[in-house]
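Q: What does the assembly look like in three dimensions?
Context provided by user:
Components: two
Sequences:
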Amino acid sequence: MSKAARLHPISAVMTLLKLLKEFTIPFLVFVVFGDLSLPLTIIVTCLFIVFLIVFSFLSWFRFTYRLEDEEIRIQYGVIVRKKRYIPFERIQSLDFSENILHQLFGLVKISVETAGSEGTEAVLTAVTKKQAETIQEILNQRKQTGAVAEQDGQEALPAVHEEIIYKITSRELVLLASTSGGIGVVITAVIAFISQFDEWIPFEKLTEEFISFALNQIFIVSILVLIGLLLAWVVAVIGMMLKYADFTLKKTDKDLVITRGLLEKKKITIPLKRIQGIRISENILRQPFKLATVYLISAGGTEGEGTGTVVILPLIKKKRIKELLSPHLDYQFIENFTPAPKRSLKRYMFRGLVIVLPILLVPVFFFKFWGLLGFLTLPMFIYWFYLKYKDAGWSIDEDQLSLRFRGLTKHTIFMQRKNIQSLRSRTTYFQKRKDLSSIMAFVKSGIGLDGGTVTDLERKDVEAVYQWFSRS
Amino acid sequence: MLGEPQKRISEQALTVWRISALMMTVIVLLVTGGVTAAVILFDWPVFIIFAAVLVLILFAYLSIYLIPLIRWRRWRYEVREHEIELQHGVIFITRTLVPMVRVQHVDTKQGPLLRKYQLATVTVSTAATVHEIPALQIEEAEELRVYISKLARVADEDV
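A: Here is the predicted structure of the complete assembly.
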């Protein structure tokens, strides 16, 4: 297995496209501000493109990988030659993804994830699916048996046990896409549309003709803007649908495997032992339908996502979470939380109003009486602060700490004691007077951190959590 | 009620914090001077000078006297066999527990001011968070670094 292999030649094209994307704008800036004569511009442009083509070709040509007994060896670099050896035992997972070009040629992109804090260790931009399977098999074999398997020659691999935990239905997909952040665009659009009229109606000194003309203009512009924003929303929805189409969550012996996407297919592998926690988020739009999104907090980085927090159930009825996940994940999906005491409600209200009231007073200052209209939103804010108070809670169940809290979205986070990197209690002078305290817990997520903060809990509760975590 | 951690940081931390606060105050002083000059030059209302001076005095009092004092009094730490406990904060009193098994590395560092007073800051890093114990006597800081890294090695586990 020590023959060096090249990537599929299409990877040269991919590199070229990527380079073009990155360098076109700087190049245009250079040409425009360089103030060159026309023939010179053409020559420079041709040279530039030829250079990029040569560079892409060379970077493909120079990139080789081979599988040794204990490691993957990669050599690359056009000007400076670089070698990278990645021992099999350090590889946590291989993540696969396919964009349209890949799919046309039956190829796949492999990201090698290691335990290092860097996340993705190496990327094989384009290999055939067959090769990818071979690499995965060899990796599995080497990881299971070490180098010993070599002596027995080609031994048949035990079939990998696979179980589908969840597969998205088309109804769920539509619901997911249409209730995602994109809806915010529409709401803003509607508000902008309505506010146009507010501003224009009180103009009295202008002639009637002009008013009708201006109103017409504004009306047309507003309609156009509205249509534009609607289109943006539709695009966002389609984007979400493409991203989460065919979303499937599977479990193999040691890993959770996520596959998703239509135009760009992705396969993400999360080793079970790298799991640091679970986060359930209930977006304010979905909460009335008792729908939630479930994330897995993993210590490994997932390529392109930045953090190790990965969606495992994009949209799910809240009561189904337990039944779906508890057979596979060693967490208790509890529902009974110890809430914040009644007296902290006042503090939640105070903390919110201190920020909201001055903001509401600004329009009063400018528009006098009509500015008071802003105060109509006050009940909404008060309800929000009440929800924040109501959703605050904690629970300890053996070795698991669960925290529940709300920003705009309600979060529930489950962490095991062994995965908590540090725990904090925080008390201000005013909290102390009321015998209240806040608790924070942090876990590792990719190269960063994730965690939760619950404010204004009973002080003795916070101390109990602190004591539970303390090892002395 | 939980007992707070026992060890304090060096008393010289106060001096260091006060010197850097003094530098900040000099800047505020310059701004106040500028404002005063502007008031005289452009004939602005005189109360602006009073307000500026008041701000200056308040800033000096808080940043040079009061805040360092509270901060120093509050700063406690304790390194036990299985965990490190920290307590700090002027308005928010924060107490932090860092299990020894989660410690990935320990550093000491010194700025010019700390070096002048033979002090050093110890930084404890886990896979996700970083914690600082500021202004310890340099020997103490070194000792602590060696001690923690020894304990952290013993308590080694998979992340």
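Follow-up: Residues 12-42 of chain B form the longest helix (31 residues).
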